[in-house]
Amino acid sequence: MNQTWKIVIVVILIISIITVMTIKRNHIPEPNPTNTQTTMAKVNEPAKPNTAINSNIPKLIDLGSDTCIPCKEMAPILEELKTEYARVFQVQFLDIRKDPPLADVYNIKLMPTQIFFDASGKELYRHEGFYSKEDILAKWKDLGIDLELPE
């Protein structure tokens, strides 16, 4: 009888552990209440953490991390694009390690990911990984965006 109770207790413990592991694996974290604008955004709409990105021109959003090597390599490219083409399209970097819900909002699988939006906020194209300045400008041209700088 004593050994039977030990077996029953071990079985109950195993079932309890499996149940807890299953619950943890399937748990969806609650949205961060300090970032409700971002978590409430739809995947095909740009996030609104920075109101400067919300204008009537196309947008390029780069999602990555300031600790990611390809992201660091892209930082100067994004800054150049941001200043040189400010009147043609906007550029914004969003750090998904500092703001993890953004990865879900934008369905990010790999860092960095660049998402091209038209002026209305509709996603036109996405690219994963490092993206050179020349390739970004070529993609804008492919998407029909006139890159001639207004005077």
How would the blueprint of this fold be written?
Elements: H1 2-26, H2 36-40, E1 59-64, H3 69-84, E2 90-95, H4 101-105, E3 113-117, E4 123-128, H5 133-142
Parallel strand pairs: 1-2
Antiparallel strand pairs: 1-3, 3-4
Care to describe what's here?
With 151 residues, the chain is an alpha+beta fold. It contains five helices and four strands, in the order ααβαβαββα. It has a four-stranded mixed beta sheet with strand order 2-1-3-4, covered by helices on one side. The radius of gyration is 22 Å and the shape is rod-shaped. The termini are far apart.
Short description:
By secondary structure, the protein is α+β, with helices and mostly antiparallel strands. The protein contains 5 helices and 4 strands; from the N terminus they run ααβαβαββα. It has helices at residues 2-26, 36-40, 69-84, 101-105, 133-142, and strands at residues 59-64, 90-95, 113-117, 123-128.
Helix content: 40-55%
The mean pLDDT is 82
Shape: rod-shaped
| N- and C-termini, Cα separation | 91 Å
Q: What is the makeup of the main sheet?
A: 4 strands, mixed
Give the amount of beta strand, in percent: 15-25%
Q: Uncertain segments of ≥5 residues (pLDDT<50)?
A: 28-53
- How are the strands of the largest sheet arranged? 2-1-3-4
Q: SSE order, as H and E?
A: HHEHEHEEH
Estimated radius of gyration: 22 Å
What structural category do the secondary elements indicate? alpha+beta
Question: Count of DSSP E strands?
Answer: 4
How many distinct helices?
A: 5
